[in-house]
Amino acid sequence: MSPSRRLTGPHPTLATVAERAGVSRQTVSNALNNPELLREDTLARVQAVIEELGYTPNRAARALRTRASHMIGLRFEPAQEGTSNALIDRFVHSLVEATARTGHHIILFSGDPDDLLDGYDELLRATAVDAFVITDTYAGTPQVDLLDRVGAPFVTFGRPWDDPSAKYPWVDVDGARGAELATEHLIAAGHQRIAWLGWEKTSRIGEDRRSGWSRALAAAGIDAAGLGVRITDNVDAARMAAHELLEDGTVTGFACASDTIAIGVLHALAERNLRPGADVGVVGFDDSLGAQVTWPGLTSVRQPLEQVAIEVIDLLHTVLSLKTPENPARMLEPSLVVRRSTRRD
Amino acid sequence: MSPSRRLTGPHPTLATVAERAGVSRQTVSNALNNPELLREDTLARVQAVIEELGYTPNRAARALRTRASHMIGLRFEPAQEGTSNALIDRFVHSLVEATARTGHHIILFSGDPDDLLDGYDELLRATAVDAFVITDTYAGTPQVDLLDRVGAPFVTFGRPWDDPSAKYPWVDVDGARGAELATEHLIAAGHQRIAWLGWEKTSRIGEDRRSGWSRALAAAGIDAAGLGVRITDNVDAARMAAHELLEDGTVTGFACASDTIAIGVLHALAERNLRPGADVGVVGFDDSLGAQVTWPGLTSVRQPLEQVAIEVIDLLHTVLSLKTPENPARMLEPSLVVRRSTRRD
DNA sequence: GCCCCCGTGTTGAACGATCCAATAGTAGAG
DNA sequence: CTCTACTATTGGATCGTTCAACACGGGGGC
Question: With 0-12 CB in 10 A as exposed, 13-18 as middle and 19+ as buried, what is A273?
């Protein structure tokens, strides 16, 4: 597979290959970039030499000349509200996978946590990246403004919350639909009084998900009064909120804005000797590692991150080739992973 | 902060800056790379223009001329034995953080899961990276052999298991010491019959950690016979193994090779109505997100990944400047994060 | 027969930085 | 005042690739 012929010494260049194949540099370049311009036998001869020498074009030289680095920047930072830490990691994995096919690479950078713009500018001015993937659009979008202003291509994972009519390309997962799925699932399992445990009102993602819960309840003709609670994303806060809701004994279902919150509910159930699934149904959000290992298994809404990554790269490709994407706003459907926290048997 | 003066148009180059400052290109270059060569006032003038124009050297041009890309490659793949998925993610975060200070950047790539070498060669031949960080040395080290052969710099996170006398630079965390800490902690909490739930014998990391457990038991004069069990890294396998060990009622402590396994033990305790901490002590490994949210909180061995990343980058720096590192083999100490799964109150 | 075009290849220049060798400037010593 | 020694600055060449323009022979179309 990997042609590891040359084991040492300087790397071969276009000129090396050209000389060896008895053609000009440009012809070798064409063999790589515009093979259809060459006569069949010439092409074959050049390709043979390329293979023999294990030649790969120098990225720096190519980038310098074409002004395209084939690198995509992603600011990678510690935990964030909403888009939970682990989620981002899974997304990055998918992204790397998706870029592998296109010859692009992901380059990670970090920045001052207090300055959302930190880092972008430098990479751009150094022409180190061709484009960016932006992952946190819920906290306003100064990055988008910056990149728009300087004309740098980008795609976001996350819709333009502030300005739904914004024209930039984005991919997102329908969180409201996810919460709706969760709630419908609980209703189908026979629950009626289903609580929502979500984030503070300032969280756009949180309010969006919550709307899916109310929609499902409304559709089933269930009164939501007193059942929607807003807390911080924290096991203990969730545990205490759950205790309060469970007090009068009527609430038997919990749809949650995150797995962390759902796990907090499970803690409360354990402390009250209630059985998850049989007595009380609980659904989390994001299908995190925690959901997968927590006892007795947490039903959770899963975002199709692999597909998100593929769509992001597809959009990026279109944008980079200066075309206008047909559908620059792509909303994907989440799915429900059912585990024992909602099984009544 | 971010000098976003120029909002559009072509990027300024060395020549632009030189002309504007009334000096030559080389002088501008020196202002950036060898400021001590310039007279004070010249330096100040040049720096002012650089600031004014928001100039940043073109990375491609610089890389082409100096043959140094200032990029570090990291093969980033889905879940792996031992070094659990989440662990790698945390490490990458720390690594990005650590590189930020040195002007280097992490570039991620993926490869054919069946070919550990896939991807390295191409990046090298394209001179896209200066060096690599390698994270999985437990499965033999074909990457190390390859990179050694072609003379490419690298540092590994993980010691050379196959050949302890290997000369390449590495950083690792003392897993045996971690398991020893865990076991000592359980002993201090009053437990005597402390079981080990670890991975199969083929896992070097697993056997290393296990040795820490036996060392601690031996030091306390406790007989380890029948207490060491090897299973796959899986909640359910751990749950069943725990049930078996708990059968005769004498085992009251569990030291585990991973949080996943420890969580399996917690499941078994729940099913037997045993209280984690009060009745049975459980310690996991890696301080994963799961350990932090699982009820009632899982005591776990934490690897100092932030420090690992710093040491890795430090070694890489030394190697890249063609120096021989003073201490190319760096073993770091893990610590214990105590939570309720080992509290008797 | 003339001209243009098409298919193949070639050559020189350019991308933007740094390295190198050579030069202009600046003191200090004799 | 000149010479030396050193410093600051300069112009040109270079890294490896692609772009732009053009050379060359062979078909048509007229």
Answer: exposed
